[in-house]
Amino acid sequence: MDYFAPPVERLIEEFARLPGIGQKSAQRLAFHVLDMPKEDAERFASAIREAKEKTFTCKRCQNLTDSEECPICADKSRDQKTICVVADPRDVIAFERTKEYRGLYHVLHGTLSPMGHVGPDDIRIRELVQRIADEGTEEVILATNPDTEGEATAMYISRLLQPFGIKITRLAYGIPVGGHLEFVDEVTLTRALEGRREL
């Protein structure tokens, strides 16, 4: 038995397909959209359409942009010899918020995952290797997540880049600020010890 009119049911189904959105959240979002004034709903739909039509990847770093080259790659004041490799465009935003990193990025758009059938040709590794061959890069910072897929991706890229003779580094891992040692897992604690530095 259908509880909602078919157009409403379809809207709920589309919201439910978004990551992290369950059935109840999808219903809440659908009814919120239905309660919007018509102009607001049209503006919302237009924003989705425009984002899909006008957003593509930067020819250099693969980050999302609406021009041929993203603003970070176009900024000549940034360190052109250092590339921070991240899995996702959202990771670029996280680094930029720190205002500490002044190099360039390379977005892989995923990580290696044999279980998920994601291999080297499914993410932007080839473009990274080409950049390093062409641009005179001196350091690559591997900043994939410290999970199984992220570690496998970092190791794979590290081995792939070895012949270039450049500096390859991995982000340090440790105890989060405000964390308590008793709640930290053994792997994180081991990494924190390995990555310790002099004060």
Name the features.
199 residues, alpha/beta, Helicase, Ruva Protein, domain 3, Dna Topoisomerase Vi A Subunit, Chain: A, domain 2, 2 domains, 4-stranded parallel sheet, 8 helices, 6 strands, 45% helix
Distance N terminus to C terminus? Answer: 67 Å
Quaternary structure of the protein: single chain
Our count of domains comes out at 2
- What CATH calls the topology of the largest domain is Dna Topoisomerase Vi A Subunit, Chain: A, domain 2
Percent of residues in beta strands:
5-15%
Spans of at least 5 consecutive residues whose pLDDT stays below 50 are none
The largest sheet has its strands arranged as 4-3-5-6
Characterize the biggest β-sheet.
4 strands, parallel
Note the total helix count: 8
CATH architectural type of the largest domain: 3-Layer(aba) Sandwich
Zinc finger (C4-type): 58-73
Keywords: DNA damage, DNA recombination, DNA repair, Metal-binding, Zinc, Zinc-finger
Organism: Agathobaculum hominis
InterPro entries: DNA_Rcmb_RecR, Rcmb_RecR, Rcmb_RecR_Znf, TOPRIM_dom, TOPRIM_RecR
Written description of the protein model:
The chain is an alpha/beta fold and 199 residues long. It has two domains: 8-37, RecR Domain 1 (Helicase, Ruva Protein, domain 3, Orthogonal Bundle), CATH 1.10.8.420; 64-173, Dna Topoisomerase Vi A Subunit, Chain: A, domain 2 (3-Layer(aba) Sandwich), CATH 3.40.1360.10. It is built from eight helices and six strands. A four-stranded parallel sheet has the order 4-3-5-6. The chain has a two-stranded antiparallel ribbon with strand order 1-2. Strand 5 (139-142), helix 7 and strand 6 (167-170) form a beta-alpha-beta unit. The mean pLDDT is 91.
